[in-house]
Amino acid sequence: MNNYSPYGTGVVERWYQDNTLYCAFVDGTIVEYGSNQIEERFIEVWRSDLTQTIQDLKSGRYDFDDYEPEEC
C-alpha cells in the first residue's frame, strides 16, 4: 500500500463519520484513519464506482465494514 496522506493532492473527498476520518483517493482507494491520522484500514473500488461508493458511505447506506476492509 502507498503512503496515503489525508491532505495530499490525490484526495478526491475527505469526510468524518462517527469521529473517524475517511479519505477517498483518485486511484479508487478509500482509507480509514485512526487517532493522529494514522492509516488503519482501506478498501479499493473501481474508479468508476468511487463517487457512488463515497455517497453510500456518507449516507449510511453501507458501512465501511460492508466492503471488507484490509488492514494497512
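(the above was protein one; protein two follows)
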Amino acid sequence: MTLRDHARIESVMHRGVSTALVAHVGEQGAAQASDVFTLPPCPQIGITMERIRNPISSKDALLGYVWLIGSDGPASERAVELLREVATQAALSCTATTLPARSPSW
C-alpha cells in the first residue's frame, strides 16, 4: 500500500502550504531548532510521512530550509549528514557576493 502525502501534493500544486501545516510546524518547535529537526506525521492535515528538515542560515539569519520526506522510512545517519551538508552549501551559495567566471564548455 502506498501512502499519499496530501500536504506534499497540495504544496507542489499550489506553490504554498496551508495555515494548518504552518501551525503544525510551529507547534512542533521548528522555529527554535538550529539543527536537524524531525516533523512527525499528522494525518489530520495531510502529512502522512515524517519530514526531516535543516535550516539554511548565515550569520544568524534564517534563509530557508532543506527538507527530506521519509517516504522510505526514517532517515539514515548518512542521509542526515548529507542534509546538513546541503544546508551548509546552500547557505554559502545564497550569501556569495560574487561568483567565479565560468569559461565556455566548448
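Reviewer note on protein two: The mean pLDDT is 83.
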